Amino acid sequence: MSIPTTNKQAVEIGKANKRKYMLERVSQRVFLFCALLSVITLLLIIGFVFYKGAHPFVAEGYSFIDFIFGSDWVPSEDKFGIFPMIVASIYATVGALIIGVPIGLFTAIFLAEIASERLAKIISPAVQLLAGIPSVLYGVFGLAIIVPFLQDTFGLVKGQSLIAVILVLAIMMLPTIVTVAETAIRAVPQTYREGSLALGVSQIGTIFKVVVPAAKSGIMTAIVLGLGRAIGETMAVILVAGNSLIVPTSLTDSVRPLTTNIALEMGYAFGTHQEMLFATGIVLFSFILILNFVLAKISAKGGN
Amino acid sequence: MRHFKDNLLRGLLWLSAFLSVAVLVMIVGFIFYKGIGLISFDFIFGDYSPTGDGGIWPMIVTTIYTVLISLVIATPIGILAAVYLQEYAKQGRLVRLIRFATESLTGIPSIIYGLFGAVFFVTTLKLGMSILAASLTLTIIVLPVIIRTTEEALKTVPGSYREGSLALGTTKLQTLYKVILPSSMPGILSGIILSVGRIVGESAAIFLTAGTVAAMPDSILSSARTLTVHSYLVTQESGDIELAAAVGIVLIVLILVINLSATYISKKFNKSTNK
Amino acid sequence: MISLKKAKMGLLMLSILAVLSACTSNSNDKQTSDGSSATVSISGSTSVGPLAEKLAAKYTEEENTNIEINQIGSSAGITNAISGVSEIGMSSRDLKEEERANGLNEVVIAYDGIVVVTHPSNKVKDLTMEQIKQIFTGEVTNWNELGGDDLEIVVVSREDGSGSRDAFQEIVEYSSGELIRNSIIASGNGNIKTTVANNKHAVGFISFEYIDDSISTIDINGVEATAENVLQEKYSLARPFLFVYKEGQLTDAGQRFIDFILSEDGQLIAAEAGAIPVK
């Protein structure tokens, strides 16, 4: 073959390479843009919700302190205090975590480490399926089974109560926690286990001292997702919370968490009332942001 | 002592697993027990009738619309975003910002998405209470789910795959399409499944953006009612637990079918990549 | 690898199809709004909603009209009618002054009674208006003060902004601020009914349409809660079902639907649904 052709080939290859690199650069931009979309939507959401929610305090002279610490919520009489709801949301979420996280996590460990392959193969997909069950159905279940159960068995005056909310939320976050945590635990390399067992550590010891710590980031994800599901749940909670406007002092009080306040009244609220519901949304939102911040700190520490 | 502790923990593991399974079996059992009496061909494929003896076909169609539209938008964006975060981005402030945004989006209660959708899509973009407004809201809701699960899936692809491929002289993009994405496909699919579940199961956000019209939607700009919203409304408005449970059965079967087909697909993928 | 490509193609086709169908249905939508089949959008009260749906179902059997009904509560329906989001708003309470000031027209399509309900096992079957007020404001907290068993009273109310609640409070004469704080707030007639039916402590109020065997109804001053007693003005816990629309906003299709509701056929359907006909 003569030299010019190889030159030509070289040029061709060069052109192809150029195109390749071009494509490479363009695609990287596209990927970046897609990744940035989540930042953009977050900003949009914050912007719109805060704009609407801050309006009464900025332009209409309502006191933000009274809004947070006020205990009267009577929209038709222009009273907007959400302290009872803040307390209710915190109690309900913490309660659900106390019950749901240990059980969910232990179930995940059981499925990944203890259960025979056959048993795990039956249970895991079933639990996965349950993660997809609409939360409304948990509410229907709560209303038809848990509420009467609390009334009849424990003699509660009303089954719609904080404890009913906690139980429904705990049950609801189970599939999420189990599914995600199980995946994380299974992803821990087999060599970790073998190493630990070879050192004479028992199976249980290995699980809790080696495997679980190694899967920490995944387990954290599981808890965050479960928490997100619990704190954000609205429709199921409306059905079992009772939605009373009191600061709960016992598990048997009926409560109104922040989310249900929004869903109950958003449908017909307008003017200041509607803006106050957006303000309720801001409070809910701030909780989540603080939570994410704390968790980011925790997992950063864990990483070291 | 250590044996005692081990046995105690082992016992707790068994107990927890038993509790989880028992509770979940109870819920499904309850729904089927309550609702199965109403299930019939006419119930599923019949048109809605306000007198109560009609079917739920319009709600099924509405649900399918929302799932399709949301996924068509969210899946490509989510996967590409995850690819950027895992394969391209250098750790730094930008990535931390994106991660923080994604995690925050995951944690935002759906009722707030509903508020946002009602102000932004319904009012500001003038889409009205419609399937489209609800689907766009749902797109934002499932985006972080897809990003997160895709990222997890990409993490599990061994570095040696990438190195091997790059060593053969392929570009990063080729490696991505030919090696990395195919081998993380099952993980990505599980993310999409989770998303379908989330969309089908979502109620609060849809309630505020799609409305509650109980009729067959004319177009994606019609206001309509999904299965979950229907189930909620019949519990709330008519106190009809049996009807709510019957709708629940349809929802569960729908999710079961989606799950099974997804498992089947991911198995096929595994075979083809192993070859 | 082949199956991957196939799957990719499949996905692509699917998305194209979805986009296409979206486009075509969009254009369909435009055609229908220009063409013969008009759409009447109605939103509002969850008490009026079921009746409006039944009327619409009957009406659309014969007429080529789409009737969209969103049940979102009275106040929201009225707001929508004012802002033009909906052509017609449904309300289960009288309009407030400031709402009327926005140039709203109202048509009474039927009347409805509100009935106080308790658990079937409750011995209390008759109350005075004053006693009802005492119960809902928390002055009386035990059924034995009203001649019943020694059981704590659990009050169940609708949410603030519900037309039924507004109408009830206006007639019984107490304000939202006076409602006993630990009352259960249920967001629908059905929810109140199931709550009361499952709790022997509970008392609530629902629309006549929802009365059935699962709950026990309370007479007021010895007058039973029936449609006749409402019509003869013996039973005072009643309110109108309204269709409201903005002056000049009503389309021909909307007007024809209202005409149908007020016709003999329409009123017959209303009566069958448990509401009280206008005539």
UniProtKB/TrEMBL annotation, chain A:
It is found in: Cell membrane. InterPro entries: MetI-like, MetI-like_sf, Phosphate_PstC, Phosphate_Transport_Permease. Pfam families: BPD_transp_1 (PF00528). One of its GO terms (biological process) is phosphate ion transport. The chain crosses the membrane at residues 30-51, 82-115, 127-150, 162-185, 276-295. Part of the binding-protein-dependent transport system for phosphate; probably responsible for the translocation of the substrate across the membrane. The keyword Lyase does not apply. Residues 86-295 form the ABC transmembrane type-1 domain. SUPFAM superfamilies: MetI-like. Keywords: Cell membrane, Membrane, Phosphate transport, Transmembrane, Transmembrane helix, Transport. It is a multi-pass membrane protein. Its main location: membrane. This is Phosphate transport system permease protein. Belongs to the binding-protein-dependent transport system permease family. CysTW subfamily. PANTHER family: PHOSPHATE TRANSPORT SYSTEM PERMEASE PROTEIN PST, PHOSPHATE TRANSPORT SYSTEM PERMEASE PROTEIN PSTC. One of its GO terms (cellular component) is plasma membrane. One of its GO terms (molecular function) is phosphate transmembrane transporter activity.
UniProtKB/TrEMBL annotation, chain B:
It is found in: Cell membrane. It is a multi-pass membrane protein. It comes from the Bacteria. Its main location: membrane. Residues 60-262 form the ABC transmembrane type-1 domain. GO terms for biological process: phosphate ion transmembrane transport. GO terms for molecular function: phosphate transmembrane transporter activity. Pfam families: BPD_transp_1. InterPro entries: MetI-like, MetI-like_sf, Phosphate_PstA. Keywords: Cell membrane, Membrane, Transmembrane, Transmembrane helix, Transport. The chain crosses the membrane at residues 12-36, 56-85, 97-121, 127-147, 179-200, 243-265. PROSITE patterns: ABC_TM1. One of its GO terms (cellular component) is plasma membrane. Belongs to the binding-protein-dependent transport system permease family. CysTW subfamily. PANTHER family: PHOSPHATE TRANSPORT SYSTEM PERMEASE PROTEIN PSTA-RELATED. This is Phosphate transport system permease protein PstA. It comes from Psychrobacillus insolitus.
UniProtKB/TrEMBL annotation, chain C:
GO terms for molecular function: phosphate ion binding. It comes from the Bacteria. Transmembrane segments: none annotated. The keyword Metal-binding does not apply. One of its GO terms (cellular component) is plasma membrane. Residues 1-21 form the signal peptide. It holds the Pfam family PBP_like_2. Keywords: Cell membrane, Lipoprotein, Membrane, Palmitate, Phosphate transport, Signal, Transport. It is a lipid-anchor. The keyword Cell membrane applies. Involved in the system for phosphate transport across the cytoplasmic membrane. The complex is composed of two ATP-binding proteins (PstB), two transmembrane proteins (PstC and PstA) and a solute-binding protein (PstS). This is Phosphate-binding protein.
